[in-house]
């Protein structure tokens, strides 16, 4: 695929490259070494509007197309890959609000999320599995109109900064879903039919 670098895309990428060179690369190694959260970098991310990168302008976002967004993340990773996790985990939640929320929820949450005032995160890490999504044990069970979940999640720095951080449990599946044998044991592991 040939990637077309429109003038707008060039300008966005030039701005991100300048940000990475000036604000990320000079401090990344030391912050990583000290295991310190990059508060100053996050403030610049807010100023650049990256917490609303691909969210439509109508909700306060930049409205970037996904290719430009991917290129932005690639540039950020050249400076410090961990910074991309801050943005991506937030945008996963913002995307969920944008795509699956009501219009009232979009109007309430997205402008503040795009400004970085309200932050989203994703709670996937479990004590026994780390971030191995195939090994998660937390499940969601629907009974009538209620849903409950079981399991334990670990708190991560992005979760600590988040206004809300959904747990994203593995759904309890019915017989209508596909199953497969686990290669490492005789137990069966359920896989949603959509996978």
Q: Helix proportion of residues, in percent?
A: 40-55%
State the strand order across the main sheet: 2-1-3
| SS-derived structural category | mainly alpha
Principal-axis shape = globular
Give the CATH superfamily of the largest domain: Acyl-CoA dehydrogenase/oxidase, N-terminal domain
Q: From the alpha-carbon coordinates, what is the Rg to the nearest angstrom?
A: 19 Å
Point out poorly predicted stretches. 172-195
The N- and C-terminal alpha carbons lie at a distance of 26 Å
CATH architecture of the largest domain: Orthogonal Bundle
Number of domains: 2
String of helices and strands: HHHHHEEHEEE
Averaged pLDDT: 80
Number of helices: 6
Assigned CATH class of the largest domain? Mainly Alpha
Biggest sheet character: 3 strands, mixed
